[in-house]
Write a structure and sequence with these properties.
It is a single chain. 21% of the residues lie in helices and 34% in strands. The protein is built from eight helices and 29 strands. The termini are far apart. The radius of gyration is 32 Å and the shape is globular.
Length: 543
């Protein structure tokens, strides 16, 4: 009997616990429902400010007192509707109490190069999300968008084969940009004036007004991106057009993103930085040099510059000697005038197959290798990246540009374009650089990392050290290599009779490469960093 009563008590206790559990779960459900809110955040507008800068206008409702943070995600889209196929380009979060109070607010962010021209995804969308104790159920008003329009601008250089038509390469780039989805393309034609010294600078205002007229055919009050491409003396034309538009601003250009691409810039001005051309010898070469000098002296083009209203600039250049690539009947090859005034990224295209113009010109290389990235807003791969970051030695030290070490098999390490073959060259300090011989080689990995160590001991002496990368040129008709090269100063390996250095047995020490090195022959560092040229002090600064 007692056993039966105990059984009933256990059943009643179990039933009571079950009811308590149901009651507790019901309370949790009720509490969850109490924390639900139909509408917390409303995003009213997404506004382009300038370049990569955006401003979001939003409101928070009364229930927002329980909101702990706001997050805004930004996307590039093919259409005005947000979906999973859209490309995420950045975000902005805030926990500031002033941004979380009930009422209307503004929040700004700078997405930088993510806002560069992308004709495949012309729409920019923001999606907001509130986090905290409240859970929003109505999210249909949590997004906003605007459409960007893009105008492509291309200019050829001076002295064209036809005085009526643009060159074929310019037309091809224009057609390709139309195929990519640019809203308008301007292949600027000044071929008729290109034979007149000094005409290039006068084309800038003409081109600028043409850009303005083109913009008038696009919807009013829109944000317009500008993509400038100039080759040779055409770099003068596009830079002068950008300067003119900077002095005569309009809202639709100011709120857009402006990119400038300079292909082997060459102003007809004897005072231009690194103004030079490679000319053949003999009477024909002398006469060619006189004609070029006469033209530049009479032209006095404005120097090529990247105006401050340009958000991003790339300069592709070559300094290929005529002896390596005998273009123009073996008479001359114009060399890229770098650096240009202003801030830009530099891409060196020295190669046995690349010259100023023609079938193997910088403009041809650009068409096949860099232009395709313009379709999707990506940054073209820089094949000329080359930087030695450290040298590992058993003992050693730097004395300015001279590495002094007793290590006969020092290891040099750095970065380059992925897949590049990197070589270490040594030459006697008293000989010419062209007498250098390779003593080590390696292939850069998928992230561009490489290291070089001579396979055999280097004899005591004083050497010039050069590092060169060999990268496929990407020209369809010929398999030449791009040859970015940096000078590593000198390396001194004392003989056993010389002053002895204190040894560090069984220990290696990586030494950082001095900042004064890692430059090519014209003082440019071959990396992906932005560099600014100051024409007054004739100095180049890394940004």
């Amino acid at each position: 009997m007692a056993h039966s009563q105990n059984g009933h008590k256990r059943k009643r206790a179990s039933r009571s616990a079950h009811l308590n559990s149901l009651h507790h779960n019901s309370l949790e459900c009720l509490e969850t429902r109490q924390l639900m809110a139909s509408n917390i955040l409303s995003v009213q507008k997404l506004t382009p400010i300038t370049g990569g800068q955006l401003q979001v206008s939003y409101s928070l409702m009364e229930e927002s007192s329980l909101t702990s943070s706001l997050n805004f995600d930004f996307y590039r889209s093919t259409d005005p509707n947000f979906d999973s196929s859209d490309k995420w380009i950045g975000s902005k979060s805030t926990t500031a109490s002033s941004d979380l109070s009930a009422g209307s607010h503004l929040v700004s962010t700078d997405l930088g190069v993510a806002m560069r021209p992308d004709p495949s995804r012309p729409y920019v969308i923001v999606v907001g999300r509130a986090s905290g104790l409240l859970q929003e159920t109505l999210v249909s008003d949590n997004s906003a968008m605007f459409r960007k329009y893009t105008i492509g601008v291309i200019s050829h250089g001076g002295i064209q084969g036809s005085q009526n038509n643009i060159p074929q390469w310019e037309a091809k780039i224009g057609w390709k940009m139309q195929d990519y989805g640019y809203d308008a393309v301007i292949p600027f034609n000044w071929a008729g004036d290109s034979y007149t010294p000094g005409a290039a600078g006068k084309q800038g205002p003409r081109l600028a007004r043409k850009i303005q007229l083109t913009a008038e055919n696009l919807p009013a009050d829109t944000s317009i991106d500008l993509d400038y491409i100039g080759h040779s003396e055409g770099s003068v034309v596009v830079s002068q057009a950008a300067l003119w538009l900077q002095k005569h601003p309009t809202a639709n250009f100011n709120t857009g993103y402006q990119r400038m691409t300079l292909l082997d810039p060459h102003a007809a001005n004897p005072d231009a930085p690194n103004n030079a051309e490679s000319v053949s010898g003999g009477l024909a070469g002398w006469f060619t040099k006189r004609i070029i000098s006469w033209y530049k002296g009479n032209a006095r083009d404005p120097l090529v510059r990247v105006p401050t209203n340009i958000n991003e600039a790339d300069v592709y250049y070559q300094r290929t000697p005529l002896s390596v690539n005998p273009v123009n009947g073996g008479l001359y090859n114009l060399l890229g005038q770098v650096p240009v005034i202003g801030t830009a990224r530099y891409i060196q295209l020295n190669s046995a197959g690349i010259s100023h113009s023609g079938g193997g010109g910088v403009n041809t290389w650009f068409y096949f290798n860099a232009l395709p990235a313009f379709q999707t807003g990506d940054q073209p791969v820089n094949p000329s990246i080359l930087e030695a970051q450290s040298v590992t030695v058993q003992n050693g030290s730097w004395n300015r540009k001279n590495l002094i070490t007793t290590d006969t098999q020092a290891t040099w390490s750095g970065i380059s374009a992925p897949g590049a073959e990197v070589r270490l060259y040594l030459a006697s300090a008293s000989s010419k650089p062209e007498n250098s011989r390779p003593v080590a080689s390696a292939v850069a990995n998928s992230t561009g990392q490489w290291s070089l160590q001579p396979s055999s001991a280097v004899k005591p002496g004083v050497y010039q050290v050069n590092i060169r990368a060999l990268v496929a040129s990407g020209l369809p008709r010929e398999n030449f290599k791009l040859l970015p090269t940096i000078r590593m100063g000198k390396m001194t390996i004392p003989s056993s009779r010389s002053v002895q250095m204190k040894s560090i047995p069984l220990q290696t020490s990586p030494l950082a490469i001095p900042n004064s090195l890692n430059k090519n022959g014209i003082g440019l560092k071959l990396n992906d960093r932005l560099q600014t040229f100051d024409p007054k002090n004739r100095k180049l600064f890394s940004s």
